[in-house]
Specification:
Helix content is about 35%, strand content about 20%. It is an alpha+beta fold. It folds into 2 domains: about 20-135, Nuclear Transport Factor 2, Chain: A (Roll), CATH 3.10.450; about 155-450, 3-Layer(aba) Sandwich (Beta-lactamase), CATH 3.40.710. The protein has an 8-stranded antiparallel beta sheet with strand order 7-6-15-14-13-12-11-10, sandwiched between helices. Strands 1-5-4-3-2 form a 5-stranded antiparallel beta sheet. It has a two-stranded antiparallel ribbon with strand order 8-9. The longest helix is centred in the middle third of the chain and has 17 residues, at about 155-175. The protein is globular, with a radius of gyration of 22 Å.
């Protein structure tokens, strides 16, 4: 059985097409706004910011209708996109540009702060193929405060909780967030609160269960590392060793390490057609679908997020352990960690805290192998993140954070384990991405001011 933990449409960066009136939030320092480049893409970005900052849904709709590519508008109408972006404006406020980078004439990145909520975002603009200049979308990523000079003064734990409470109350009041947020230090909760109602209209509780989606990749990474620890497989094994019936032109070239680090070249199947093909199949039955598509690039050549790679790893765990994947992780991860409320791709904030504690305490892997799994091995396309074996790894103003995001329609989550300082942050939401990442990154800025 293939659990829903792997059925994510997108990880931590989200193409939302997107966000931004109000004075700066209390305690926030004013920033000197950067000038946008006078290139065609820079001028288009300036027009977008003007539309967004106007607070007018009509202005957003008109910009999108005039400047998005035909494929993007076929996928989702200008009216639908404008309504979504206007909802973000209402919870975040207008955007102030802190820094602009233009790696090429077809790419532009802006670091911005939201004036109402004080959050930091990175906007990525790119040119769609062909002429005239059109946008395939705008990528918004929650990011850390880009410099100490731009961040407010240090905070106590009590001040962190007070700022977080104010922030979440505002998000919930605007219906931008519903779910559970837990912040713990050395395993003891400092903050734990539920907001809003679930998709079934039941009030959320701290014990409510939420879909994990790609957060389940952490369990895959641990499972594979456990089998390697036992000598039953090697990270450098070509996957033909476990999948002899699949095409050798792929399985001879792809290793377990490639699958774990998203460098295999297997497709991600985030497109609706690919997703619908495999969502009801077991891990074993999904394999022909993945391998029929071939490789997008030579294994090890670059990083490209791949859900297919992780479902292939589930199939390998099943063949090596002679258990279903769900049975394996129940016995070897959930039970040792005390995760009694986790099953079928659903979990609670408390269970994810238990998972982080078990990871720290060496209950799942030896200390040496835990360090190996959590080592950032390759740079990702996500802001400031590297990838280990099932875990994203980031350095935030000197603090090392490991964990993973998850997203599926109507669900969004984030686990951040502050490996050196002892904090754990769990955000589980009954809303579309990237609201959990917004909350988690807000907490990164708050906790980095401890």
């Amino acid at each position: 059985m293939k659990p829903t933990t792997q059925r994510s449409l997108r990880p931590a960066a989200f193409v939302l097409l997107l966000l931004l009136s109000a004075a700066a939030p209390a305690g926030a320092q004013e920033i000197k706004e950067a000038k946008l480049p006078r290139s065609p893409l820079g001028k288009l970005a300036a027009s977008y910011l003007q539309a967004f900052n106007s607070g007018s849904r009509d202005a957003l709709r008109d910009f999108i209708a005039a400047n998005y590519s035909e494929p993007a508008l076929r996928d989702r109408s200008a009216e639908t996109r404008a309504t979504l972006q206007w909802s973000f404006y209402r919870s975040m406020g207008s955007l102030a540009v802190f820094r602009a980078e233009e790696p090429s004439e077809d790419e532009l990145r802006l670091w911005v702060r939201t004036r109402l909520s004080g959050e930091w975002m990175r906007l990525s603009f790119s040119a769609a193929p062909g002429k005239p200049l059109r946008l395939p979308g705008i990528v918004f990523e929650p990011v850390l405060c880009p410099s100490r000079a731009a961040c407010p003064a240090r905070l106590s734990d009590a001040q962190v909780v007070a700022e977080l409470t104010s922030y979440l109350d505002a998000l919930s009041a605007s219906d931008a967030f519903a779910g559970v947020v837990l912040v713990a230090r050395d395993g003891a909760p400092l903050f734990e609160k539920a907001y809003g109602a679930s998709r079934w209209q039941a009030p959320n509780q701290p014990s409510s269960r939420f879909a994990l989606a790609s957060m389940g990749k952490m369990f895959v990474g641990i499972a594979v590392a456990q089998l390697a620890e036992q000598g039953r497989l090697s990270f450098q094994d070509p996957i033909r060793k476990f999948l002899p019936e699949q095409p050798r032109q792929i399985t001879d070239r792809v290793t377990v390490h490639h699958l774990l680090t998203h460098t295999s070249g297997l497709a991600s199947f985030v497109d609706p057609e690919g997703y619908s093909q495999v969502q009801l199949l077991s891990a074993q039955d999904s394999l022909p679908v993945f391998f029929r598509k071939g490789l997008s690039f030579e294994p090890g050549e670059r990083w490209q997020y791949s859900n297919a790679g992780y479902i292939t790893l589930e199939a390998i765990v099943e063949r090596v352990s002679h258990q279903t994947f769900s049975a394996y992780i129940e016995q070897h991860i959930f039970k040792p960690a005390g995760m009694t409320d986790t099953s079928g791709g659903l979990s609670t904030a408390r269970d994810l805290l238990r998972f982080s504690s078990a990871l720290r305490e060496g209950k799942l892997l030896s200390r040496e192998d835990t360090a190996s799994v959590l080592r950032g091995r390759i740079q990702t396309t996500w802001a400031e993140a590297r990838y280990g074996y099932g875990f994203a790894v980031q350095e935030a103003h000197g603090q090392r954070i490991v964990g993973h995001a998850g997203a599926a329609p109507g669900w969004n989550g984030q686990l951040d384990v502050y490996w050196d300082s002892g904090y754990t942050v769990v955000v589980l939401a009954d809303r579309d991405a990237p609201v959990a990442q917004r909350v988690a990154v807000k907490l990164r800025d708050l906790l980095n001011r401890r």
